[in-house]
Design brief:
Elements: E1 15-19, E2 22-26, E3 39-44, H1 59-65, E4 73-75, E5 81-83, E6 86-92, E7 97-102, H2 116-130, H3 132-138, E8 142-149, E9 152-157, H4 164-167, H5 178-181, E10 201-207, E11 211-216, E12 230-235, H6 239-248, E13 253-254, H7 259-266, E14 271-275, E15 285-291, H8 301-309, H9 313-320, E16 325-327, H10 350-359, E17 371-379, H11 383-395, E18 398-406, H12 407-416, E19 422-428, H13 433-436, H14 438-441, H15 460-470, H16 475-492, E20 496-501, E21 504-508, E22 511-512, E23 526-527
Helix pairs in contact: 2-3, 8-10, 15-16
């Protein structure tokens, strides 16, 4: 049962109660205060395939599941590491060895004690096998992970590894319970749909297509952190419906705002907006077309350059994204500050595109078309982009056949089955290039893993430069290496970078204390009644 009672002024507030053993949300804003039981209702546009964020980098999974789990460390709003499951750590051997000392007061939601074996199991059997970001960055660099006792974990690297602490957050490397997964297939384990974590909130129920409900974890190891009694994720695919629900107070928080809704939300007096590109799923995202380099003529760099030159990114940013994005400059989000020089916005040049198509032998046929490509994309979210790109490519003689499908089905088709011409992804760079950028271009990541190297791009120089940058502790030298990498990738054009997106969040004014940079978004939140 999922019921509401209307409050004054035509909007809604939900407060959790229990009736007949079922989770129910009801009551009015007048009953809500910082001292009373309270619920935050958040919105997700898609029903996730599962809630095991250690086996995927899908932003939708991480955004919802972040409250269930913990990482060894947390990052503050400035990106500085703080204790998480690890209360302290030592860096030894010039950055080759990291020793983490774990908290002794942590238990899983089912009451079992958390130990170092949960950490080693999660890394070896989940993250290093199925998480595209963790696998690409850590697997080539690691010598091993040891657990000499229940409260100590040691990471050993072949060379100094600079980005480790930024990688060990709940957003990147959540820790899952060994006792519930060992001896099973992590991809199909039933606890992916009824998760057990150590986080500030615990799983209550999941009604497919409607809602996912969490309750406050009374035994959370950071006392006083989880202040809201219940978090309800409503599944609302339509972005206009999301905005209306926020305006009316039917929901409290939108983790992403589309450009078409921005002006309306800015004008809503009871709504607050903020940009923060970090958070669950990585942050600093670049919306990107994924060409299948196994298929001709996409295996020809001249064709990919011609396609790139046929895209009017300024139009996409200003008209389609309406102030929530800027034209892409390449594989590195500009705000990440990763390279020693900032590339210019990628060019839109029809004449150069025609010349490159001709050089590759892709000529216009009768009727003006020279090439047909099938564009496989997930809904909701990419419909308007697909239609706009179809129009832009048509002017270049490229017929883009739209192939819309459910988001999870699109991930399966592009990354698992690899049966596509063009796909699309929002590749989030993360807190460091080794976390979010490397996984897209590393040839060792050409695997049936969601959001890895879906294009199947191979360049041994690129692989070695990424490895060298990760082993370089000097920030200036790292920027030089990433600058060189960017120049190589801009020349090879293994992907078609579209726009750099902003992390724009919206929430009701009466909700205070949101940690919008973290997967633990709600764990310091309070609700203040009018």
């Amino acid at each position: 049962m999922f019921s509401r009672r209307k409050r004054r002024h035509g909007s809604w507030r939900t407060v959790s109660v229990v009736a007949s053993g079922m989770a129910v949300v009801s009551s009015s804003l007048a009953q809500v205060s910082t001292r009373s039981p309270s619920t935050i209702v958040a919105v997700t546009g898609t029903d996730p395939a599962h809630l095991n964020s250690a086996i995927t980098t899908a932003g939708g999974v991480h955004t919802i599941a972040g409250s269930l789990y913990d990482g060894l460390v947390e990052l503050d709003s400035a990106g500085r590491p703080l204790p998480g499951l690890a209360e302290r750590w030592d860096v030894k051997d010039g950055g080759r060895t990291y020793v983490f000392h774990l908290r002794r007061d942590v238990v899983w939601h089912d009451g079992i004690r958390f130990t170092s074996r949960d950490v080693t199991y999660t890394f070896t059997e989940m993250l290093l096998k199925y998480s595209a970001r963790a696998k690409a960055g850590l697997e080539p660099a690691l010598s091993g992970i040891d657990a000499p006792d229940d409260t100590t974990v040691i990471f050993r690297f072949k060379a100094p590894y600079a980005p480790l602490l930024k990688r060990l957050t709940v957003d990147e490397t959540p820790i899952l319970p060994r006792h519930l997964y060992e001896g099973t297939d992590p991809l199909t384990n039933p606890h992916n749909a009824s998760p057990v974590g150590t986080g500030p909130y615990r799983f209550v129920e999941w009604v497919r297509g409607d809602r996912i409900v969490f309750a406050r974890n009374p035994r959370y190891f950071i006392k006083g952190r989880a202040r809201i009694d219940r978090v309800v994720w409503r599944i609302l695919p339509n972005v206009t419906a999301q905005t209306i629900a926020l305006e009316r107070g039917e929901v409290d928080y939108l983790g992403g705002v589309e450009g078409s809704q921005l002006a309306r939300l800015r004008a809503a007096p009871a709504v607050r907006l903020a940009r923060h590109p970090a958070g669950a799923g990585g942050g600093w995202c670049v919306n990107t077309l994924v060409p299948n380099l196994h298929r001709h003529p996409l295996d020809d760099a001249r064709v990919r350059r011609a396609l790139s030159l046929s895209i009017d990114r300024a139009f996409l940013a200003s008209r389609l994204y309406q102030g929530t994005a800027s034209p892409a400059r390449g594989p590195f989000h500009t705000a990440l500050g990763a390279t020693d020089r900032v590339a210019a916005p990628l060019a839109f040049d029809s004449a150069r595109a025609d010349s490159l198509f001709a050089a590759a032998g892709i000529v216009r046929r009768a009727g003006g078309s020279r090439l047909q490509l099938r564009f496989s994309y997930g809904t909701p979210g990419f419909e308007a982009l697909a239609e706009t790109l179809r129009d832009q490519f048509a002017r270049a003689g490229v017929e883009l056949v739209l192939d819309p499908m459910d988001f999870n089905a699109a991930v399966e088709k592009v990354y698992i089955k690899q049966d596509f011409d063009l796909g699309v992804a929002s590749y989030c760079n993360g807190a460091d290039p080794d976390i979010g950028v490397k996984r897209v271009y590393d040839s060792r990541n050409i695997l049936p893993i969601p959001f890895g190297n879906g294009a199947a791009y191979r360049n041994p120089v690129v692989d070695s430069l990424f490895d060298l940058a990760a082993a370089t502790l000097d920030p200036a030298r790292r920027k030089q290496l990433y600058g060189r990498l960017q120049r190589i990738l801009l020349d090879d054009v293994p992907y078609l970078w579209l726009v750099e997106t902003d992390g724009l969040r919206a929430w009701r004014a009466e909700v205070r204390g949101l940690r919008i940079w973290s997967g633990h978004t709600f764990d310091e939140a309070t609700i203040v009644a009018h």
